[in-house]
Amino acid sequence: MLDKLVGLAMLVVASAVFLYYSVWTLLMPFVDPDQPIQNLFPPRVWAIRIPVILILLGSAVVGSFLGVVMIRSNRKRAAKAKVAGKKKA
User: What is the DSSP annotation of 2-31?
Assistant: First the structure.
């Protein structure tokens, strides 16, 4: 039951973020700058910066994870080869 609540919460948050970002990037350029609703949104330059920063950060995390997995795999392979070499000798 808890997993369904967590999934629902994640869906609601993702939908809210998507709706906010969509309104910010697609509708707000057509609203006059002196309207009070413009105060609810950051400057439009951040509509590009935020996704770029998130993509770079995500790529760095994925690259680091792959690097750690490759290093650990290579260490295990070297240890197995060392043990197999000792058995043959």
Answer: HHHHHHHHHHHHHHHHHHHHHIIIIIGGGS
